[in-house]
């Protein structure tokens, strides 16, 4: 090989098209494993059969660790190992097709060429390329046979995340942005900052061919606990010193901020932010991934498949248990095979980057096979008991007396946890319900059998549990029933109108003393501020139903509200001569609407005007109004616009210009916030034409 540095043509356009990597905006070759790519280089004066290629990754490449491969030119590709086949040759250049095995380690590689005929020559570097997982290749652990699903779960940069509560599901758009700017490099540096890499770089690298290994490592790296990872969680309702979790609209800003700060954790995240960032990272690396929202999600801290909630005599929800039931929780599913468990456990795997419980000593969760969860196989790796509880735990509601420490069971329920499990549809902006993929029909014998099987596998059946209610307590029958009905709009800025409905189930009259409270909460149902309380005494005639209207005016709740707009209303009914009845409802208030209009046709490289319209719905002035706009291929980075204060009932119109730079359906995301409303979000699909 001549002393001159060979010049390399990486055929970026053709290789990217063949490898589904055209969306990356990189000047470096990015290809997927288990598939050939073309390279042409010159500066070799050797016959091509005398050439040896070296592909290596990581700080200490070795053949043993699968981080170094040496291969010559052969007549056909080998499916098992790295190989090269001659494509064409001219007087001073050689074109070869390089094939990587479908189980190759992913990451950034250095490619060199060496002449075999002269021992003395040192290898000449051809440059670097990045190798990713390949869901389009049948030999890959992440192979996904359905092409439309590959498009959605690997190539789609826009997502919809579901939130709210089981009575009232709402949703918002998210910009995953996995192909933007420097995101791929940030994802690769995330792997090099993990605890596993710091403890033993060679072993960590040798496992980077395995999606279940990387999924688990990245579920730890997305939260800041243990390893100075990407996001610091905060569920206090006070987000001073950072950005409120509900104000983010995409992962790009978070990942860029993490890098810019010298890899200091970004403040602040909550479950959907952790899940969205993990989606970005895994899609970027080529592992098919989606976000999943579970409504009435259990956080079972002590592993007994039971969640205990405590209320005092006044009906206040006490924040004293490690267990909790969240209005919703968002995690991830990634698609790959489970050679460690067997084919029936392959497919969607649950990963969760929200720091809830330690696993193996650090805050990481998964991969838990979704099939294992459905079948109650909670003894399988990883973290199946925790995920099983999130969708299946039984719920116990207790009355707790702080003075004596005495607790009395009010009632227990086995059908409230894990409802309306939701994800975005493939190729459409709709909700798809996947509850039946997590469990058999609620209340069916099959579902109860699976629950018993899980309890047995966890050794809970044979063990006496002194904290469990007695069968007598569980079998008590209440004399009355109660529920809260909504009687008016559930909107921030409007009075909250509810009706407490109490019904006497018996054929003799009942005297009931009712203590009612309303608290603002965060979406985990953690109480933050008391908003309202009242108590009434009523006599219910035999079989009588009575209604009691409740009104909480906007001025009474607006200062207490958290950015989640959630209120928990509770009525604890003390029935004379009978057992207590707990009536509760979690209410999520909608923000007022905001509207986006694209004025004219959106064409590539042409200016187009966009108007955002918002009307102040309350009779107070809105201050500190800021509009935040982002959208891949429509504008670069994030546009922030200060909006002048809005007087009562005033309508505001904010205009700005876009210059789209790619054709096709694109999403524009808007986030409006001010002193009275947190994070009013909307998105609009913009079809960009030539």
From TrEMBL:
Keywords assigned: Acyltransferase, Calcium, Metal-binding, Transferase
Cofactor note: Binds 1 Ca(2+) ion per subunit.
Entry's EC annotation: 2.3.2.13
Binding site for Ca(2+): 392, 394, 442, 447
Organism: Eudyptes filholi
Listed Gene3D superfamilies: Immunoglobulins, Transglutaminase-like
GO molecular function, one term: protein-glutamine gamma-glutamyltransferase activity
The protein, known as: protein-glutamine gamma-glutamyltransferase
Catalysed conversion reaction: L-glutaminyl-[protein] + L-lysyl-[protein] = [protein]-L-lysyl-N(6)-5-L-glutamyl-[protein] + NH4(+)
Domain of life (superkingdom): Eukaryota
């Amino acid at each position: 090989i001549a002393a001159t540095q060979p010049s390399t043509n990486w055929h970026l356009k053709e290789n990217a098209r063949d490898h589904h990597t055209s969306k990356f905006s990189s000047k470096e070759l990015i290809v997927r494993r288990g598939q050939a790519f073309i390279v042409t280089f010159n500066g070799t004066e050797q016959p091509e059969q005398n050439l040896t290629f070296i592909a290596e990754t990581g700080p200490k490449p070795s053949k043993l660790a699968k981080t170094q491969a040496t291969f010559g030119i052969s007549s056909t590709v080998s499916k098992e190992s790295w190989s090269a086949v001659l494509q064409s040759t001219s007087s001073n250049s050689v074109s070869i097709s390089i094939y990587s095995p479908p189980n190759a380690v992913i990451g950034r590689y250095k490619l060199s060429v060496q002449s075999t005929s002269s021992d003395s020559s040192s290898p000449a570097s051809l440059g670097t390329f990045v190798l990713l997982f390949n869901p389009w290749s049948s030999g890959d652990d992440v192979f996904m046979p359905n092409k439309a699903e590959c498009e959605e779960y690997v190539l789609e940069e826009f997502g919809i995340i579901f939130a709210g509560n089981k009575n009232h599901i709402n949703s918002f758009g998210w910009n995953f942005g996995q192909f933007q700017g420097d995101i791929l490099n940030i994802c690769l540096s995330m792997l090099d900052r993990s605890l596993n890499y710091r403890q033993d770089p060679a072993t960590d690298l040798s496992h980077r061919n395995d999606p279940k290994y990387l999924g688990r490592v990245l579920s730890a790296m997305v939260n800041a606990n243990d390893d100075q990872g990407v996001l610091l969680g905060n569920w206090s309702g006070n987000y001073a010193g950072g950005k409120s979790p509900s104000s983010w609209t995409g992962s790009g800003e978070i990942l860029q901020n993490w890098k810019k700060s010298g890899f200091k954790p970004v403040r602040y995240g909550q479950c959907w932010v952790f899940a969205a960032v993990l989606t970005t990272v895994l899609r970027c690396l080529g592992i098919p991934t989606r976000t999943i929202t579970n409504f009435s999600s259990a956080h079972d801290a002590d592993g007994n498949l039971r969640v205990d909630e405590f209320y005092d005599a006044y009906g206040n929800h006490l924040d004293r248990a490690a267990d909790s039931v969240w209005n919703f929780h968002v995690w991830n599913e990634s698609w790959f095979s489970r050679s460690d468990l067997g084919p029936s456990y392959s497919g969607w795997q649950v990963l969760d980057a929200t720091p809830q419980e330690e696993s193996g000593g650090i805050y990481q969760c998964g991969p838990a096979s979704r099939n294992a969860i459905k079948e109650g196989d909670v003894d399988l790796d990883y973290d199946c008991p925790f995920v099983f509880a999130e969708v299946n735990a039984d719920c116990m509601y207790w009355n707790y007396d702080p003075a004596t420490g005495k607790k009395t069971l009010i009632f227990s329920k086995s059908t409230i946890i894990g409802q309306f499990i939701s994800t975005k549809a493939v190729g459409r902006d709709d909700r798809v319900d996947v509850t039946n993929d997590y469990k058999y029909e609620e209340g069916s014998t099959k579902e109860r059998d699976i629950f018993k099987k899980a309890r047995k596998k966890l050794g809970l059946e044979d063990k006496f549990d002194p904290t469990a209610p007695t069968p007598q307590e569980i079998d008590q029958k209440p004399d009355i029933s109660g529920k809260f009905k909504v009687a008016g709009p559930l909107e921030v800025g409007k009075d909250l109108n509810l009706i407490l409905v109490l019904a006497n189930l018996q054929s003799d009259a009942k005297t009931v003393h009712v203590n009612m409270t309303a608290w603002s909460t965060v979406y985990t149902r953690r109480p933050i501020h008391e908003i309202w309380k009242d108590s009434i005494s009523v006599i219910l005639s035999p079989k009588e139903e009575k209604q009691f209207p409740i009104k909480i005016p906007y001025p009474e709740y607006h200062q207490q509200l958290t950015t989640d707009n959630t209120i928990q209303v509770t009525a604890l009914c003390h029935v004379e001569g009978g057992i207590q009845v707990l009536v509760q409802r979690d209410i999520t208030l909608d923000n007022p609407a905001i509207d986006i209009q694209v004025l004219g046709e959106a064409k590539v490289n042409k200016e187009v005007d966009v108007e955002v319209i918002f009307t102040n719905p309350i009779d107070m002035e809105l201050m500190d109004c800021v509009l935040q706009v982002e959208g891949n291929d429509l504008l670069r980075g994030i546009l922030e616009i200060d909006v002048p204060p809005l007087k009562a009932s005033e309508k505001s119109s904010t205009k700005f210009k876009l210059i789209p730079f790619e054709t096709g359906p694109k999403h524009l995301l808007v986030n409006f916030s001010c002193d009275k409303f947190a994070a009013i979000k909307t998105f609009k699909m913009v079809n960009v034409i030539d």
